[in-house]
Amino acid sequence: MEESYKSESSGDQLADTPKKKDVQEACTMIAEPLLKNLSIQGETPYGQGVVAHSLLAGRDTERTAAAVALPFLYRNTKLRKKMLLDYSGLKTLVDVIKNMSKKDEEVVTMAIEALCHLARDVIATDDAVSFVSRQQGSLSPSTSPLRKKFKPDYASGTERDESMPRKDQCFYKDLQDRTDILLRVENHRTVAVNRQLLSDKSSVFAAMLSGSYVESTQNDISIDEVSYHALLFLVHYLYDCDEKNCPTMLQLLNSSHRQSQDLELEILACADRFMLPGLLAAVQNVVIERHLNFDSVVDLYNYCHLHHCNTLQRECLQFILCKEATSLSTRLLCFQQICQSKNNEVILNEIFSLIETLVKSIQ
Question: Is the CB of residue 143 less than 8 Å from the CB of residue 284?
Answer without folding.
Answer: no
